[in-house]
Amino acid sequence: MGGELDSLDLAVGKRLSVVATANGLTADPQVRNPDGSWRRARPGDGVAEALVALLSTAPEVSEIGSFTLHAWAARVATGERAITVDQTNESVIVGDAAVVKWAAHLQAGPHPAPSRIETLRTNGFRHMPCPWGLITWRSRDGAETLVAGVDEYLPGAVDGWTWAVDLIATAAAGPGAPAHDLASAAADVGTVIAELHAALAVTATVASPADAQRWRTAAAATLDDARAHADPVMRDLLQSRAINEILDGLGGMAGTPLIEGHGDLHVGQVLRHPGGYAVIDFDGNPVLPPAERILPIPAVLDVAGFAQSLTHAAIVARRHHRVDEQALSRVERLARDQFTSSYTTHLAALGHGGLYDPACLRAFRLQQVLREVVYAARHLPRWMYVPEAALSMLLDEGITGGR
C-alpha cells in the first residue's frame, strides 16, 4: 500500500492517511478489514460519509495531531457514489448533497485554498459550491497542505470545457446561427468573476518592482521552456520578435493592485448549473512553486486566464464540430469581448474598478499559451494543436488591431 506517514481517525474502522508512493504523497481514504489490516476505501465503504459526519460536529477550526479541520456548513449525509470525470482529485458524492475530494497528489505546502475560501465565505461570495469544510495536513517541515475538501453538490452541473465548446460551436454553426446564448454566458461569467474579485478586495496590496521583475523573468523562462520543447513548426512561431515585445510589458507592472485571486482561472474552473455559474478549485496554479502559489496576483491575470481559455475552447470546437473558421474567429472574439466588458463594468459598479488594469491582458494571455505549449510537449502531444493555433491567433491580433 505504501508508507503511511500520518493518519486521521474519522470513525471506527475508517481513517484518512497520508501515504508516500513512488509518485509522491497522496491522501488515502482507508477502511479496516476484518483481520485488522487496512485497505484503500472504495465508494460505498462509508469513509467519505464518516468525513462529512466528523465535520458536521467539529468546531469551525480544530486541530487533531498534524491535521487541521475547517468545518463551515457540513451536515450528516449518507450514501456514496464515485465521480469518474475528476482528473485532479478522487471524488465521491455523498447523499446527493456533498462532494468529498481526496487529494490524489498532495501539493507541497503552503496551500492557498483554506485562506481564500475563508475570505470568500466571509465576504459573501455566492458563486461557488457552498464549502462544507476541508482538512489540511502539516508535514514535519511545518508546511501545511490540503488533503481533503467537502463542498456542496450541484446537481446538473456541466464542466466548463463542455458548455463553452458547445455554445461556441452552436454560435459558429453557420449564417444566422444564434450567438446570443454564447454572448449571454460570457457576460454572466464576467459578472461572476467581478464579484469574485470584489470579495477578495480586502486582501489588496500593491505590486513592488520585485514582483514585476518576477513576472517578467517567469514569462521569459516559460518562453525558453516552450522553445526547448516545441516541434519545428511551433519553434518557428516562437521566434517572433512580437512575443518578447508583448511580454516586456510585465516588467512595468510595479504599482499595480494585487489580490489573493484564483490564480488558475479557465473555463474548466467554472461550472454551469441550473442556478447559474460556480467557480471551483482555489488551489492556485499547479505549475508554480508552493511559495509562489500563495502570493497575491494582479486581477488581470485571472481575467487573462479565462479569456484565453475561451480561445482554446473555440479551437477545440473547430476540431470536433467542423465549424467555419471565419465564423469561429468572430464568435471567439465576441465571447472574449463580452466577458471582459461585463467584468470591467460590473467590477466598477461594485466600487472596485481600480483593481483591474488591462494593460498586460495580452501578455498574461500569451504566457498561458506558452504554458500550454510546455504542457502539451511534456504530457499530452495531441493537445499541441490548441496552443499552436492560439499563438497564431494572438499574434495576429497585433496586426489586425485586436487586443
From TrEMBL:
Binds 2 Mg(2+) ions per subunit. Signal peptide: none annotated. Mg(2+) 1 binds at residues 269, 281. Its cofactor is Mg(2+). It comes from the Bacteria. One of its GO terms (biological process) is carbohydrate metabolic process. Keywords: ATP-binding, Carbohydrate metabolism, Kinase, Magnesium, Metal-binding, Nucleotide-binding, Transferase. One of its GO terms (molecular function) is magnesium ion binding. Mg(2+) 2 binds at residues 281, 283. InterPro entries: Actino_Glucosamine_Kinase (IPR053634), GlcN_kinase (IPR043674), Kinase-like_dom_sf (IPR011009). A motif (Substrate specificity determinant motif) lies at residues 368-383. D-glucosamine binds at residues 264, 372. Catalyzes the ATP-dependent phosphorylation of D-glucosamine (GlcN) to D-glucosamine 6-phosphate. May be involved in the phosphorylation of acquired extracellular GlcN derived from the hydrolysis of chitosan, i.e., in the incorporation of exogenous GlcN into the bacterial GlcNAc metabolism. Monomer. Belongs to the actinobacterial glucosamine kinase family. This is Glucosamine kinase. It comes from Mycolicibacterium rhodesiae (Mycobacterium rhodesiae).
